[in-house]
Amino acid sequence: MKKLLLLLIGISAMHQAHAQSGNAKDIATQFLQHLNTGNYDEAFASIDAEKTKLTKEKLSTTWAKVAKQLGGLDSMGEVSAEKFKEGEIVHIIANFRNGKFDFQVTIAADKKITGFFLVAPKPKAQWKAPDYISSKNFTEKSINLHSGKYDLPAILTLPNTKGKCALIILVHGSGAHDMDESIGPNKPFKELAEGLSSKGIAVLRYNKRTYVAHDLDSNITLKEEVVDDALEAIKLAAQFPEIDGKRIYVLGHSLGGMVAPWIAKDAKNLAGIILFAAPARPMDELLLEQYKYLIGLQPQSAEGKAEIEKIEKAVALVRGKDFNINTPAAKLPLGMPAAYWLSLNKYKQVTVAEKLSCKILVMQGQRDYNVTIDDYDFWRLKLGNNKKVSFKLYDKLNHLFHEGVGKATPQELEEANHIPEYVIDH
């Protein structure tokens, strides 16, 4: 539940009644102090009201859950700040009884707080390249992916071979991901890129828009979050002389895999798509299933039961006839805006995939609880008779395509591991 709660904080933007004075570090420190002491009037007064519909009650409830789960805030450590175009991001080392976190506060140029996040500290275990990666077999080029008004840092990994080569573009799952799709000490996209390029296939990967941008519209949809940047990446890739424009593929992981058929439909010239643990069912159904699975890993409690009832109510609202663009985000799953959930409801990935003429490869780990065997089976049911579609199921792999045994847990994702070479070779 801690991951779910931190996600709620991360996607919430905040509210403010008046402008503030003082530097960004002071503003952020006072904000955390107000939250810790339960002075929610002052905390709420420091937040930008135009960025979200979060209420003071929602703020206090969310922080109370954080304090309960993390054991309360004992002290604050180092405070640092980094500037960006629209303001500053302040980092405060927050020492909770149950662990240390990076408390990040985004402050606009007018000194109003526009968001805050709790981020787990950098893992003690650092990523190390698996044996199948051979750096002498490829070259990396740092490039820029310009999409709309955003510049997304990217890397093109090119095999050191003669002639034009095939290329795979990597598209991230849910959340604000860097180009490596870093999760704890793990970097699955870096492994895919360098592993594939070690074996003769070029790869383009980039920082996700939600990782780079601090001024995203509160009514963001799947198109702005994922599709637009992927389409620009396809155009950019085709411009490199080393790349065979007729052999460009998209590999989408999780949400990226769900949206891959949409990308292929709009790009029109893709050679194929790879659905890497891609949901076939509606996202609200998966979300409810994930909540039940994660809470089921813990001892039964009134709190767990209440969490399930809460998400069931939110999911029912998304599915109901009264759901519309004006439905408050605070009432919806994960606090995401109505525009986002409307875009999810409208998009039917399996139906879109059925109409594609390009090749499709569906890859799934049987131990994955984020996207399950039920999704894989549904892809097979609907696409199994298409000769251009192939399937691969791995009995030991989880959502990151890491090997394990028994029931998968969130802790697995924080343990250093690698995508097996047999996945790279498929």
Query: What is the molecular shape?
Result: globular
Spatial separation of the terminal alpha carbons: 35 Å
Provide a count of the helices.
15
Major beta-sheet overview: 8 strands, mixed
Helical percent range?
Answer: 25-40%
CA-atom Rg in angstroms: 22 Å
**Order of helical and strand elements:** HHHHEEEEEEEHEHHEHEHHHHEHEHH
Write the CATH fold name of the largest domain. Rossmann fold
Biggest sheet strand order reads 5-6-8-7-9-10-11-12
> Could you tell me the mean pLDDT?
88
Sheet/helix structural class: alpha/beta
Number of domains: 2
The poorly predicted ranges are 1-21
Kindly report the oligomeric state of this protein. single chain
Please give the CATH architecture of the largest domain.
Answer: 3-Layer(aba) Sandwich
Q: Would you report the number of β strands?
A: 12
Briefly, what CATH class of the largest domain? Alpha Beta
Beta-strand fraction estimate: 15-25%
* CATH level-four homologous superfamily name of the largest domain: Alpha/Beta hydrolase fold, catalytic domain
Question: What report would you give on this structure?
Answer:
This protein has 426 residues and is an alpha/beta fold. It has 2 domains: 118 residues, Nuclear Transport Factor 2, Chain: A (Roll); 238 residues, Alpha/Beta hydrolase fold, catalytic domain (Rossmann fold, 3-Layer(aba) Sandwich). Helix content is 37%, strand content 23%. The strands form 2 sheets. An 8-stranded mixed beta sheet has the order 5-6-8-7-9-10-11-12, sandwiched between helices. It has a 4-stranded antiparallel beta sheet with strand order 1-2-3-4. α1 packs antiparallel against α4, α7 crosses α8 and α9 packs antiparallel against α10. It is globular and about 65 Å long.
